[in-house]
């Protein structure tokens, strides 16, 4: 049907289908890719556009409803070269990480801002008003704290004026790619559309366990518009979970591909399936892997797999990190007061707002260009070259912007392999992009974990004295865990105790229970959040039971300086120091305060190489890496800017392309900052030194020295002259094009684990803590976080504003894990039930209390760059911190998350029955 | 090969009914429910899109009450000054559901007629009782969010938030139905039925396959009423309620409750009116003890499923909270202008548009 509408001020007449969405019109027809497809069912707001000034979810709005309306997209918010105040505010407050949700938030917040200003002038909206107005938006990176700051600030009129007169569109704010994100200009993999591109759809197994006997796709291939298909499961092989890829097919458009898949016939021999760990361990349960297929099980962890005993569906124990396990067991047995408890955490899915997506294109027979939503352009290019027998430099992997990853995009995605295979078969570029349901099935997950914990602590030393080295009496911990990573293996959760309590006696065992569920993949701090949920609650509960101070108790046995700084920091915080007695409130709402701590290592990729180039156009830094929202572009620019003493925004940072250098690190394992910053600094220093030489030779200066923004030197031979300042631009004007590269030097004393496959584990540990204040509604079972303060000891903080954003994001993801998120499968057949973002609940703006981030100074002198990463560390304490606060408020110790209202009510009822007011 | 179904954009109810009958089509109002479902259907039905229906979203005075066109967006209902003054529970409920982006587009009629949110029903590859299959998949499976008054073969709670508020106000809905044997171009028959008559499974299509919701009628307002809408959920906002409650109360000069309506949603196949609770508060002082005793009656007759027992405690808690909030809230005016403000007099719209 014909549609006449106005989009961004221009009249458009289009022929649209009855079911076509407004999102499809703006993105696919008009090429306005600022609005994003996040969920497709009205829950995330990434697709927001304004229709007659009102923000709407364009994914659900039929295009025909736009008839006669005025449509505004994010691309049109900045008019007359002037940004909207909301855009400036988002940049200045760094209300973005990966940026995938940002256009939607900006479109909605701009409408709210305009209406607010018209009615209320520069009055300040409350957090509640902002939360309600923006409640239709989700940010998986957790930028809510900054979004509050930005929206409230803009409504107060703080961002009305451009920061620099005369240059209204100039990028401002701490993030160098902020402008691209707030204007919708940032291009993600899903926005790439090469000429002639085909769309792929995937036929997935409807069975949790079956053998594929035959596939007949002849009728599908005969349909018009269908270009080719590839098998993703070999004939005779098994599929092991509902949703496993069986056939991928490419056609002219998605509807054609979907219709064609319905014509593909697969003959399955359906096998008995095991859903859930109980079924997997039952006597006579079908074996998901047999000896010869053990090697097919994917690894859900970042560590390499160690050989471990495997019996039917149980793999383990993995106990390599145990320490004096026998003595630990004996001590616990002998201690009548030892703590004993079981903690359970749920399956959490990554569900980055940009789904896994790949656009593959063959150039001739022997080179390949792949746009990939990935955390590892370098590594993916290497892998693809290997798999397809190509030269490394014949494979380009591009990821200009990446809409979040959290670990799930650090491993080779099957989406990339499907796109590459299909592109070869079809001779055309092919796009594979998961929809939200697919992403929630195969997009990666953190395994559910059951942890049995026992703890015995040394008798009280009566005080709070940190021990002299070597003398501290140590605790004994027994921690045995069972992970359900579906068909994946490699859990190492109990192993985390060795990092957190390295001198303790540790009886540690990790088991994988293999089930017919989608495979786990590394997720931000693999094993960490579940392990710390258990350990840090055990310590808290035990301290309370013994009537001892939980922080002093930890201090008593600690020997690590970063942890020592963190414990001291906790004890200085008013929120903690002045906390009320446990169970202080007796009414409907009960407040409580809890603390939890964590320790985490950092990885380094010593092969990381950063290039800095100088030309008359200015300075450019590049690396074969990517920015998944953590701020790698900014980090690079900052490192170079710091050496040269120039504003960060004058440095052009080029990443997101595997051909921009020999090697850039994978974004994961908290390795980016520690790998990239030192390499960029060295490259910049080398460049600076070359420029000094150039100046000496070409500008006739004696012994010039670098000063902020340029150099100073005396004219040659004139010892009496004042040294004169020469800005870099003048040096560049006479200099030849210069390129330098920097590598990362070894840390002092080397690494804890020297590089294996290019990856080293650093010698130092980062430490952190979170203090949470919350309120439990004992009537409706809701837990509301009012305030949370995080303290991190990680040494020097690069890009402090971005670092704060990262930490806030980690705290929010942790909160979301503790309170809301939960993947659920049908208990009979393993079908994913939480297939959208309404049922798979991630935290929204209204759920986040006031957050504070403290970086605790000191330490890390031996580390190159004097600082380490923090992306994982900050996401470890929240769940335990929240649980400890609930126990403090109510006397009920939550041992299972998420803390759904039904669990909270049941928990409260259980303590009401037992001893009223017992120690939590 | 993009799939193209026939579509009509009628201008009148008569045209809409005729087009529906001719094409065996489904009506599309805002599309916020329908489009998500259709996206996964292999053979979606033809469409009758209600975009161009004349006066479909009008809100106007009606015999001392109010007539709200079925095409009015939920946000507009929530913001309408007359609704806010005289039927505050309706305004509050419509303003609390979903998200601003959904409320701006979703219509009152569509909200009443929407399909269940059961995760089996919404699964593209599953066919349950409600989709022509032969069993309810939730019963033997995972029904954590389902009913605790298990009174129907389908265990999904009725999804409509607006419905429970309308029930509390004993609203009626107006239907346009084919005028029997008359010629197709004859004006349709208009019928007014209580709102609950269209809420049960398939009720609307059983009245007639072409039945079109054209309006909701709210009766004369009750002066000095106090109302509250409460939802229990995990997250603060934008989440489907585990339990939702609408309460209306009027207190006499002596502080004694002389009028009460209590309706609840998300617990049963249709929203329920809890007359036991109402009776327990009427004629009694609005005291904490009375309210607690009355709220405890909310679960009378409940039949939870194995996984939904928790909803009973939540229900009693939410009813109690709503009673308290209503008691402590500001009453509506002593006298209410006989002709409520029309659209033209909207003073301060909180939303800028209406689809
Ligand atoms: C994220 C999210 C959260 C939500 N939360 C809530 C919530 O908390 N509470 C709640 O109540 N709802 C909630 N909703 C649902 C939303 O309110 C409904 O989708 C909406 O009200 C449907 O209205 P519509 O006009 O878009 O209907 P449509 O999608 O156009 O139609 C819905 C159904 O009604 C039929 N229909 C529509 N109009 C008529 C008519 N006039 N006569 C006869 N049949 C008609 C259609 O044929 C279709 O079957 C939520 C939705 C989303 C996306
Ligand atoms: S509860 Fe209703 S909608 Fe859900 S599976 Fe059962 S019959 Fe279908
Ligand atoms: S994509 Fe439209 S709301 Fe998520
Ligand atoms: S910045 Fe919001 S989803 Fe990444």
UniProtKB/TrEMBL annotation, chain A:
<dbReference type="InterPro" id="IPR012675">
    <property type="entry name" value="Beta-grasp_dom_sf"/>
</dbReference>
<dbReference type="InterPro" id="IPR037165">
    <property type="entry name" value="AldOxase/xan_DH_Mopterin-bd_sf"/>
</dbReference>
<dbReference type="InterPro" id="IPR036856">
    <property type="entry name" value="Ald_Oxase/Xan_DH_a/b_sf"/>
</dbReference>
<dbReference type="GO" id="GO:0016491">
    <property type="term" value="F:oxidoreductase activity"/>
</dbReference>
<feature type="region of interest" description="Disordered">
    <location>
        <begin position="455"/>
        <end position="474"/>
    </location>
</feature>
<dbReference type="InterPro" id="IPR036884">
    <property type="entry name" value="2Fe-2S-bd_dom_sf"/>
</dbReference>
<keyword id="KW-0560">Oxidoreductase</keyword>
<dbReference type="Pfam" id="PF01315">
    <property type="entry name" value="Ald_Xan_dh_C"/>
</dbReference>
<dbReference type="GO" id="GO:0051537">
    <property type="term" value="F:2 iron, 2 sulfur cluster binding"/>
</dbReference>
<dbReference type="Pfam" id="PF02738">
    <property type="entry name" value="MoCoBD_1"/>
</dbReference>
<dbReference type="InterPro" id="IPR008274">
    <property type="entry name" value="AldOxase/xan_DH_MoCoBD1"/>
</dbReference>
<keyword id="KW-0479">Metal-binding</keyword>
<dbReference type="InterPro" id="IPR002888">
    <property type="entry name" value="2Fe-2S-bd"/>
</dbReference>
<dbReference type="Pfam" id="PF20256">
    <property type="entry name" value="MoCoBD_2"/>
</dbReference>
<dbReference type="InterPro" id="IPR046867">
    <property type="entry name" value="AldOxase/xan_DH_MoCoBD2"/>
</dbReference>
<dbReference type="Pfam" id="PF01799">
    <property type="entry name" value="Fer2_2"/>
</dbReference>
<dbReference type="InterPro" id="IPR001041">
    <property type="entry name" value="2Fe-2S_ferredoxin-type"/>
</dbReference>
<dbReference type="InterPro" id="IPR000674">
    <property type="entry name" value="Ald_Oxase/Xan_DH_a/b"/>
</dbReference>
<dbReference type="InterPro" id="IPR016208">
    <property type="entry name" value="Ald_Oxase/xanthine_DH-like"/>
</dbReference>
<dbReference type="InterPro" id="IPR006058">
    <property type="entry name" value="2Fe2S_fd_BS"/>
</dbReference>
<keyword id="KW-0500">Molybdenum</keyword>
<feature type="domain" description="2Fe-2S ferredoxin-type">
    <location>
        <begin position="1"/>
        <end position="77"/>
    </location>
</feature>
TrEMBL record, chain B:
<dbReference type="InterPro" id="IPR016166">
    <property type="entry name" value="FAD-bd_PCMH"/>
</dbReference>
<dbReference type="InterPro" id="IPR051312">
    <property type="entry name" value="Diverse_Substr_Oxidored"/>
</dbReference>
<feature type="domain" description="FAD-binding PCMH-type">
    <location>
        <begin position="1"/>
        <end position="223"/>
    </location>
</feature>
<dbReference type="GO" id="GO:0071949">
    <property type="term" value="F:FAD binding"/>
</dbReference>
<dbReference type="InterPro" id="IPR002346">
    <property type="entry name" value="Mopterin_DH_FAD-bd"/>
</dbReference>
<dbReference type="InterPro" id="IPR005107">
    <property type="entry name" value="CO_DH_flav_C"/>
</dbReference>
<dbReference type="GO" id="GO:0016491">
    <property type="term" value="F:oxidoreductase activity"/>
</dbReference>
<protein>
    <submittedName>
        <fullName>Putative aldehyde or xanthine dehydrogenase, molybdopterin binding subunit protein</fullName>
    </submittedName>
</protein>
<dbReference type="InterPro" id="IPR036318">
    <property type="entry name" value="FAD-bd_PCMH-like_sf"/>
</dbReference>
<dbReference type="Pfam" id="PF03450">
    <property type="entry name" value="CO_deh_flav_C"/>
</dbReference>
<feature type="region of interest" description="Disordered">
    <location>
        <begin position="328"/>
        <end position="355"/>
    </location>
</feature>
<dbReference type="InterPro" id="IPR036683">
    <property type="entry name" value="CO_DH_flav_C_dom_sf"/>
</dbReference>
<dbReference type="InterPro" id="IPR016169">
    <property type="entry name" value="FAD-bd_PCMH_sub2"/>
</dbReference>
<dbReference type="Pfam" id="PF00941">
    <property type="entry name" value="FAD_binding_5"/>
</dbReference>
């Amino acid at each position: 049907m014909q549609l006449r509408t106005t989009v961004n001020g221009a009249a458009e007449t289009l022929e649209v289908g009855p079911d076509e969405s407004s999102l499809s019109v703006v993105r696919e027809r008009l090429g306005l890719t600022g609005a994003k497809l996040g969920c497709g069912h009205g829950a995330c707001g990434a697709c927001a556009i304004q229709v007659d000034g009102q923000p709407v979810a364009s994914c659900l709005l039929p295009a025909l409803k736009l008839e006669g309306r005025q449509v505004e997209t994010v691309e049109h918010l900045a008019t007359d070269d002037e940004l909207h105040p909301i855009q400036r505010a988002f940049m200045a407050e760094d209300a973005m990480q990966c940026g995938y949700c940002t256009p939607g938030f900006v479109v909605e917040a701009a409408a709210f801002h305009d209406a607010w200003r018209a009615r209320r002038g520069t009055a300040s909206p409350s957090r509640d008003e902002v939360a309600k107005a923006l409640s239709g938006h989700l940010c998986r990176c957790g930028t809510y704290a900054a979004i509050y700051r930005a929206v409230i600030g803009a409504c107060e009129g703080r961002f009305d004026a451009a920061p620099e007169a005369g240059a209204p569109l100039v990028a401002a704010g701490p993030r160098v790619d902020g402008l691209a994100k707030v204007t919708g200009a940032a291009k993600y993999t899903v926005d790439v559309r090469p000429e002639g591109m085909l769309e792929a759809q995937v036929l997935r197994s409807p069975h949790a366990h079956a053998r594929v006997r035959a596939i007949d796709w002849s009728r599908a291939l005969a349909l018009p518009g269908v270009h080719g298909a590839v098998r993703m499961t070999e004939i005779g092989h098994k599929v092991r979970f509902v949703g496993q890829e069986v056939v991928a097919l490419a056609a002219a458009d998605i509807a054609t591909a979907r219709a064609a898949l319905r014509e593909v016939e697969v003959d399955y021999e359906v096998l008995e399936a095991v859903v859930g760990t109980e079924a997997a361990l039952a006597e006579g349960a079908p074996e998901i892997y047999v000896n010869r297929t053990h090697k097919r099980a994917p690894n859900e962890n970042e560590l390499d797999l160690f050989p471990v005993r495997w019996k039917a569906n149980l793999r383990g124990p993995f106990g390599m990190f145990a320490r004096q396990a026998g003595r630990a067991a004996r001590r616990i047995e002998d201690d009548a007061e030892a703590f004993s408890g079981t903690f359970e955490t749920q399956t959490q899915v990554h569900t980055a707002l940009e789904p896994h997506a790949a656009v593959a294109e063959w150039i001739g027979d022997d080179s390949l260009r792949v746009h990939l939503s990935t955390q590892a352009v370098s590594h993916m290019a290497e892998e693809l070259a290997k798999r397809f027998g190509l030269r490394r430099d014949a494979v380009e992997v591009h990821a200009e912007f990446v809409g979040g990853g959290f670990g799930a995009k650090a491993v080779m995605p099957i989406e990339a392999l499907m796109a590459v295979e299909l592109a070869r078969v079809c001779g055309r570029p092919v796009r594979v992009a998961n929809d939200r349901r697919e992403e929630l099935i195969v997009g990666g997950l953190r395994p559910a974990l059951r942890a049995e914990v026992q703890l015995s602590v040394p008798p009280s030393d009566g005080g709070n004295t940190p021990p002299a080295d070597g003398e501290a009496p140590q605790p004994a911990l027994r921690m045995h865990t069972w992970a359900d990573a579906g068909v994946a293996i490699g859990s190492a959760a109990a192993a985390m105790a060795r990092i957190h309590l390295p001198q303790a006696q540790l009886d540690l065992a990790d088991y994988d229970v293999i089930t017919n569920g989608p495979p786990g993949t590394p997720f931000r701090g693999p094993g960490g959040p579940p392990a710390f949920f258990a350990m840090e609650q055990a310590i808290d509960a035990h301290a309370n039971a013994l009537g001892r101070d939980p922080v002093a108790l930890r201090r008593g046995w600690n020997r690590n300086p970063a942890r020592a700084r963190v414990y001291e920091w906790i004890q200085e915080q008013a929120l903690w120091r002045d906390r009320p007695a446990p169970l202080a409130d007796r009414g409907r709402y009960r407040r409580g305060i809890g603390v939890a701590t964590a320790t985490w290592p950092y990885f380094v990729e010593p092969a990381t190489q950063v290039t800095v180039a100088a030309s008359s156009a200015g300075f450019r830094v590049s690396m074969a890496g990517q920015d998944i929202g953590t701020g790698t572009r900014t980090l690079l620019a900052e490192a170079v800017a710091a050496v040269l003493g120039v504003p960060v925004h004058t440095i052009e940072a080029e990443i997101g392309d595997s051909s921009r250098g020999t090697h850039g690190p994978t974004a994961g394992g908290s390795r980016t900052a520690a790998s990239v910053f030192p390499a960029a600094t060295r490259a910049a220093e080398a460049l600076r030194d070359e420029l000094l030489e150039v100046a000496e030779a070409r500008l006739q200066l004696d012994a010039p020295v670098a000063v902020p923004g340029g150099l100073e030197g005396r004219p040659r031979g004139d010892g009496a002259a004042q040294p004169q300042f020469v800005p870099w631009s003048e040096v560049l004007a006479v200099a030849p094009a210069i390129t330098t590269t920097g590598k990362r030097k070894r840390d002092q004393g080397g690494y804890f684990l020297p590089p294996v496959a290019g990856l080293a584990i650093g010698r130092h540990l980062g430490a952190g803590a979170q203090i949470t204040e919350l309120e439990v509604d004992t009537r409706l079972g809701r837990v509301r976080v009012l305030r949370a303060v995080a303290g991190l000891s990680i040494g020097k903080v690069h890009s402090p504003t971005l670092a704060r954003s990262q930490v806030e994001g980690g705290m929010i993801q942790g909160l979301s894990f503790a309170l809301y998120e939960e993947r659920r499968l049908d208990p009979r057949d393993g079908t994913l039930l939480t297939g959208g973002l309404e049922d798979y609940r991630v935290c929204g703006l209204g759920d986040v209390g006031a957050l504070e981030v403290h970086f605790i100074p000191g330490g890390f002198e031996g580390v190159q760059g004097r600082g380490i990463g923090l992306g994982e560390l900050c996401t470890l304490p929240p769940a335990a911190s929240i649980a400890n606060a609930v126990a403090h408020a109510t006397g009920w110790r939550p041992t299972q998350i998420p803390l759904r209202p039904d669990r909270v009510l049941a928990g409260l009822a259980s303590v009401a029955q037992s001893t009223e007011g017992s120690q939590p | 090969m993009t799939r193209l179904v026939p579509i009509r954009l009628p201008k009148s109810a008569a045209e809409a009914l005729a087009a529906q009958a001719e094409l065996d089509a489904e009506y599309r109002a805002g599309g916020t429910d329908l489009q998500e479902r259709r996206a996964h259907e292999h053979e979606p039905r033809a469409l009758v899109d209600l975009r161009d229906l004349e006066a479909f979203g009008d809100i106007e005075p009606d015999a001392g009450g109010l007539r709200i066109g079925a095409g009015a967006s939920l946000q507009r209902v929530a913001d309408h000054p007359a609704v806010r003054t005289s039927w505050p529970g309706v305004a509050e409920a419509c303003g609390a559901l979903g998200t601003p982006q959904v409320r701006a587009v979703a219509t009152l009629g569509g909200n009443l007629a929407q399909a269940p949110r059961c995760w089996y029903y919404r699964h593209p590859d599953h066919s349950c009782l409600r989709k022509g299959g032969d069993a309810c998949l939730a019963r033997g499976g995972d029904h954590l969010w389902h009913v605790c008054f298990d009174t129907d073969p389908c265990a999904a709670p009725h999804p409509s938030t607006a419905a429970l508020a309308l029930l509390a106000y004993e609203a009626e809905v107006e239907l346009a139905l084919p005028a029997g044997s008359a010629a197709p171009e004859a004006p349709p028959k208009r019928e007014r039925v209580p709102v609950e008559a269209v809420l049960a499974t398939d009720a609307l299509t059983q009245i007639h396959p072409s039945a079109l919701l054209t309006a909701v009628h709210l009766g004369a307002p009750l002066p000095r009423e106090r109302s509250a809408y409460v939802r229990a959920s995990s997250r603060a906002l934008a989440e489907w309620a585990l339990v939702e409650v609408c309460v209306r109360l009027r207190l006499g000069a002596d502080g004694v409750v002389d009028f009460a309506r209590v309706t609840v949603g998300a617990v049963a196949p249709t929203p329920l009116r809890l007359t036991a609770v109402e009776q327990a508060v009427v004629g009694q002082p609005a005291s904490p003890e009375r309210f607690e005793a009355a709220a405890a009656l909310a679960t009378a007759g409940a039949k939870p499923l194995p996984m939904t027992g928790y909803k009973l405690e939540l229900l009693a808690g939410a009813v109690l909270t709503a009673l308290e909030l209503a008691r402590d809230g500001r009453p509506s005016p002593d006298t209410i202008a006989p002709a409520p403000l029309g659209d033209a007099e909207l003073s301060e719209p909180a939303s800028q548009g209406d689809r």
